[in-house]
Write a structure and sequence with these properties.
Rossmann fold; heme biosynthesis; 2 domains; alpha/beta
């Protein structure tokens, strides 16, 4: 507690919400995709084909509005707790760009900020690349504040508990309350090599492969809690969506659509699609699941309900505040509690040496011992 009796966020004088970004109108789509794929030599014609996903929704990704809603909910949560901590918003690939956010923070006199990334798991694309983006942005902005990226939160109660309730609500929408339904947990596919090198050796000398291990921990914990709540043991699977890249490059499988085909062949009557890899209903959810996977299920005669993402669930919002307070206490030399559930320990504040290496070669990154 600070002298006023409120939770102490020092040494932080701001919070930065860091996300992927997305286009907000038709003419933004291809330039946005050029930003996402910069350095990969993908022709514009191919980007226009990929952009069809966005054009189906008027060229607007929902991700920026969802982040603004999250920030508004977080501002209220902080105010209700008596915490005065301004929140800034920066993206990797679209306006508001990260460097612009840092420039505003510098102009406002921010000296040190905690960084919350809207990605819960460890891999190059879901963690270290954000750290590389932070490095690049700091290099561009004179007087940029010191930035501390908060730990991964895939196993935090504030992430898991909303997923459990979302599963229960979805099961209730199926015939017979989803008595015989299959829980199909879905996350973003990544190249298998990236998955295998995700994370680093921990204190017990456990191997890498953190991306899949972390997902399986979250999936098993949600399924266990659903079993406790319903008294029924639903079979469950971890599958993937949003594969991209060259067909010759192995990516994590099975794809959600292929898996639905198998379930239909096996006579499964109902499916709950659980977007366990995502924190809000952005494009991978509304296209890959709500549009593409739903069309596959309808063709197969499968009854499918999609569980909600955490979004602005008050427990998820409170989790962000708790992560800031936890890291602030650690930076002050204290030994804070680090809430976790499931089979994995809490992630470290600082990434280990060689953690989640860039597949295209070494790059400097902020917020790690190997930076």
């Amino acid at each position: 507690m600070n002298p006023a009796g409120h939770p102490d966020v020092k040494p932080y004088d701001a919070l930065l919400v860091l996300s992927f970004g997305g286009p907000e109108k038709q003419e933004d789509v291809v330039p946005f995709l050029e930003n996402v794929t910069r350095g990969r030599g993908i022709p514009r014609e191919r980007l226009e084909q990929v952009g069809e996903h966005y054009f189906l929704f008027g060229g607007k990704s929902p991700i920026n509005d969802q982040n603004r809603a999250l920030i508004a909910a977080l501002e209220k949560d902080l105010a209700d707790q008596g915490i005065d901590l301004p929140i800034y918003f920066g993206n990797r690939n679209w306006d508001p760009y990260l460097a612009d956010a840092l420039a505003k923070m510098a102009a406002d006199g921010v000296e040190r900020a905690a960084v919350f990334a809207t990605s819960a798991y460890s891999s190059w694309s879901s963690c270290r690349q954000y750290r590389e983006n932070l490095w690049d942005a700091v290099e561009q902005v004179e007087g940029a504040p010191r930035l501390d990226k908060l730990r991964q939160y895939y196993n935090h109660p504030g992430f898991i508990e909303p997923a459990v309730d979302a599963c229960l609500a979805a099961l209730a929408q199926l015939p017979d309350g989803g008595d015989r339904a299959r829980l199909v947990f879905v996350t973003h596919s990544i190249p298998t090599e990236m998955a295998e090198t995700s994370g680093s050796l921990d204190a017990e000398g456990q191997p890498r492969g953190a991306y899949v291990r972390q997902h399986r921990s979250a999936v098993d914990e949600v399924a266990r809690r659903v079993r406790e709540a319903t008294g029924r043991a639903h079979r469950h699977d971890l599958v993937y969506c949003s594969r991209s890249g060259a067909p010759s490059t192995p990516w994590l499988e099975p794809d959600v659509n292929d898996h639905l085909e198998e379930l239909a062949t096996d006579g499964v009557g109902g499916v709950v699609l659980v977007p366990i890899g995502f924190v809000s209903d952005h494009m991978e959810v509304i296209y890959d699941l709500d549009t593409e996977a739903r069309a596959t299920a309808e063709r197969l005669g499968l009854e499918v309900v999609r569980a909600a993402t955490a979004g602005t669930d008050p427990r998820f919002v409170a989790m962000i505040r708790e992560l800031v307070l936890e890291r602030a206490a650690a930076e002050r030399g204290e030994d804070p509690a680090r809430p976790t559930v499931g089979s994995m320990p809490p992630g470290p504040d600082l990434c280990g040496a060689g953690c989640c290496p860039n597949p295209r070669g070494p790059r400097p990154a902020l917020c790690g011992r190997d930076s």
